[in-house]
Structure formats: C-alpha cells, structure tokens
Design a protein that fits this description.
10 helices; Rossmann fold; alpha/beta; single chain; about 25% helix; 6-stranded mixed sheet; 2 domains
C-alpha cells in the first residue's frame, strides 16, 4: 500500500484532473509495477465505497466514452494527518482486440469538513473516464487514501459503436481529440455561453459527474469545430449561484483543457449569503452577460448557449428591447429528455425573447442539423 501511494505521489498532474500515465517514464513504470503488486494482494485496510460504472456512450464529438463514479465515506478520507489526499487509479486493458494496459489516475485534496458535520453521513464523490475504440476491455479501479485505506472494483466494458476518431482496442484520456482549433474556412466571431449544470436530472447534486463534464466538453468542441466560426469567446456560468466560473475572450485549444479541470471543481453544495441577499433574477443575470459580450471587441456574429433545459430556472419575463435589437442570431443547444414536456425556462425563454431558436438535443444526431443552421445563419 505504501509503495503504491509513494509511486503515485511522484507523478505530477494538475489537481482534480485525470491523468494518463506515461509508461515510458521512470515514474510511470514504478506506478504500473506498484499497482500490479497491490492489486495481486488483499487490501490491508478496506474502506466502504460505492462504485457506479457508466455504460459506454457516443458523445457529441462522435467518440465513445465510458467511466465511473465512486462515493467514499468522509470518515475514511479524514484518517491520518493533514494534508490528506485521495488517489484513484484505473488500469484499462484491451481484451478483444488485445492490447497493452493503460493507466489513468487522479489525485484530490480532502477538504476539512464543517465543525458540526456528522462524518457518518458525509461522502466524497469522485470519478473518471476514458475514450475507447470498438472492442472489449477489462477495467480495474483502485481508490486509496494517504491514511492507508483502500477500496476497489473490477468490471468489463464492451464497445459496439465505432468511434469517429479512434481505432479498435485503444484507450485514450477524455481530453484527447477535443477541439484542435478553428477551420481555415471559418468566418465571424461567436459568443458562447456554457451553463455548468448536469445534463440529466439528479436527486442529489454537489458536483458535475464525469459523464456530465464529457457531454458539455464534447458539445462545446463540436460547436467550435463545426460551427463555422473564425474566433470565439467563452463564458461558463452557474445560474444557481449567478456567477461566472470561467471566461476567455479569445478561445484557444489549450483553454478547453483548463476548462475541463475547472468543471471538475464546480461545487453546488454551498452558496454565499451575499448572493442570496442581492436577489438578482436569473434572467437579468443572463441578460447582463449577453449585454457585456455585445459591447466587447470583436462584436459577435452569433450567440450560442449550451445547457440543459431542466435546470434552466424560472422563465425570463422582461427582455430588454435594446438588447433584442442589438443581438445577432441567437441559438440554444438545449439538452433535453424525449419523454419530458417542454416547459419555459430561463435559457430557452431568453433565447426566444431575443428572437433566437432553441434546438432540443438528446442524441448526437440531433446536434448536426443545429450546427448546420448555425453555420448558415452567417451567409
């Protein structure tokens, strides 16, 4: 156990990010050897945890993604002296066609809980994922703490869909194949607004799941790649807290990687008291964001919202006439469910109030006609 933790701590990676271990480096070889050694023996200190493997799905970049989430008790994570960390390692081995195993890991700091918290009822959730080509894979995931506890899970993944970018029997980190830059044929500037909220309804919500993050990032990448733009700004917002969590005036490929790490840190568990006292309405908050972007340089030729309809807040009732007059074509790529009735919400009602169009997005094939119309709006 100590050998595995020591090997993992030597591999440098951004906090909260999942990282592909390089088997050609000395640290990577040590980590792989320590993982194999630890997996072959029983855990010295077993901790309670709940694994939830995700089925493979075709994301909006037409790549196959699979992954997991795991909930671990706070009592186990807070064992030992500070600073405390939790580390998750996954070994993904192609079985058919056969291939060499790939190791992915992430490491997170464990925050101190509130003074009056009942540790028996608190849990920390983390998770990860990977891109897969067609085939069968064995996944072995181990979660360890610097306090010495461990839990693990093994399962098999079968991918029947063909990835648009990845050959059979291969494993890549989720960041691989994201947006690589604008097309030379692109025209105009886009103001893109991304709602950092879950794509599907969940009863309990504290952070975006790996699945949510992959859907949001792959949709953003598809808009940047196939929307026909020459440049774009990006504003990522949390409508519940009425705050901006990420902003870039002129988006570059490396910014998407930074955004991936930022989305992993978005926390819905707490809201500041001053935000509640200000009482800014969701619709007013969004109109202020759009107004600020319309005044920036270069002026946008299109405004694109990306976000789920189910968590869009109350309907926007008061639309600024001057804002409607000044707005270029406006679109909303709205993640939706086919069996749920369409109800007015903050995002869709704002877009329609600005004279824009809402596209209901449920499957990857729903995105292509929306992107085609976005491209054609600037002809």
């Amino acid at each position: 156990m100590k050998a595995l933790a020591a090997a993992l701590l030597t591999v440098a990676a951004p906090a909260a990010a999942q990282w592909l271990v390089d088997p050609q480096t000395e640290a990577g070889r040590q980590m792989a050897a320590a993982f194999s050694s630890q997996w072959a023996r029983k855990p010295a200190r077993q901790m309670a945890c709940r694994f939830d493997p995700f089925r493979p799905f075709l994301d909006y970049g037409l790549r196959v993604w699979a992954g997991y989430s795991v909930a671990v008790s706070a009592a186990a994570l807070l064992e030992g002296d500070a600073p405390r960390e939790v580390i998750a390692v996954s070994r993904v081995t192609p079985l058919d066609p056969p291939g060499a195993p790939v190791h992915l890991y992430q490491r997170l700091s464990v925050p101190d809980p509130p003074a009056d918290a009942d540790l028996r009822r608190l849990e920390m959730s983390l998770g990860g994922g990977w891109l897969l080509g067609r085939g069968s894979y064995r996944v072995e995931t181990m979660v360890v703490t610097t306090g010495g506890s461990e839990c693990r899970r093994e399962w098999t993944v079968r991918v029947r869909d063909n990835s648009a970018t990845q050959p059979p029997g291969t494993v890549q980190p989720p960041e691989a194949g994201l947006w690589q830059g604008f097309s030379r044929e692109g025209r105009g500037h886009a103001a893109i607004f991304l709602h950092a909220s879950p794509v599907r309804p969940r009863r309990y919500l504290s952070r975006l799941s790996p699945w949510d993050r992959q859907v949001l990032l792959s949709t953003l990448s598809a808009v940047l790649r196939d929307g026909g733009f020459q440049s774009a700004s990006l504003t990522v917002f949390d409508l519940h807290k009425r705050e901006v969590v990420f902003e870039q005036d002129h988006l570059r490929p490396e910014d998407v990687g930074r955004l991936a790490r930022q989305l992993a840190r978005v926390d819905y568990g707490m809201i500041r008291i001053d935000q509640l006292r200000q009482g800014v309405l969701p619709g007013d908050f969004l109109q202020d964001l759009v107004r600020r972007r319309l005044r920036a340089e270069p002026a946008p030729d299109a405004v694109v919202f990306i976000g789920a309809r189910w968590m869009g807040g109350p309907k926007t009732r008061q639309i600024d006439p001057a804002l409607r007059e000044a707005a270029p074509p406006v679109f909303h790529l709205a993640f939706s469910l086919p069996h749920m009735p369409e109800e007015a919400d903050t995002l869709s009602s704002l877009v329609r109030g600005l004279g824009g169009k809402v596209f209901n997005i449920y499957l990857p094939r729903n995105l292509a006609p929306a992107l085609k119309e976005i491209r054609q709006s600037r002809r």
